Amino acid sequence: MMRTQNSKSRHGVLVTLWFLTLSACFGILTWYSNAPGRASAAPPSWPAHSKVTLDPRRPTLLMFIHPHCPCTKSSLGELAKIVSRCENKAVYECVFVRPQGTPEGWERADLWSTASAIPFVNRIVDVDGQITRHFGAQTSGAVQLYLPDGKLAFSGGITGGRNHDGDNLGADTVTEWILTGQSEHSETFVFGCSLF
Q1: Residue 72 DSSP SS3
Q2: Residue 40 in contact with residue 155, Cβ under 8 Å?
Q3: Fewer CB within 10 A of the terminal residue: the chain, N end or C end?
Q4: What's the confidence (pLDDT) of residue 20?
């Protein structure tokens, strides 16, 4: 009789510990998916001597990408939706960071292929992150939108969280800027891995 009670007591303790562990893990994952990355220190005007060319007639959108960041797949999915709504009313540049010391082609992973499938999107290899640093980007998936006069219109992310697809303020704001040349918003949080 005593053994049965001890066995039931241990079983109850194990079930409780399992439940608490599972709850803690779920809490950590939820926190992580909603924790923004570092914001860009985007220049308010298009930087002089940039290796990327500002289009003088249409807005220029830059997305900075760590080629192996799993969170950025959702950002590219949202970019595809923006492009489908805006088509060639903007120039779209995906800047893939290739850190110093990595072999040539290191950046040509799944995200490179995903970006290549989006119409109107150009891909740029950024050796040692020189372009990315020039624009002050810190987090993969960071988007900066510059108007034809070189003024920064938007800086932030275009997803609602890490690996979150669907309607969100960032994508809506970028679309609004491209289609109308104005918006009430100019920045949002970025959700992704560090670029460096």
Answers
A1: helix
A2: yes
A3: N
A4: 38
Of 160, 162, 91, 142, nearest to 121 (Cα)?
91
pLDDT for residue 106 is more than 50: yes
Task: Name the amino acid, one letter, at 51.
Answer: K
- For 192, the 3-state DSSP assignment is coil
The residues near 40 (Cβ < 8 Å, ≥ 6 apart) are 64, 135, 136, 137, 138, 139, 142, 144, 155, 156, 190
SS3 92: strand
How many residues in the chain?
196
Side chain identity at 193, as an amino acid letter? C
Reading phi first (left if > 0) and then psi (alpha if -120 to 50, else beta), residue 186 is in alpha
Taking the model in full, what pTM does it have? 0.83
Angle between helix axes 169-180 and 72-86 (nearest 10 degrees) is: 30
DSSP secondary structure letters along 97-109: EE-TTSPTTTT-S
- Nearest CA to 63 out of 168, 161, 154 is that of 154
- Both tokens assigned to 33: 């998916």
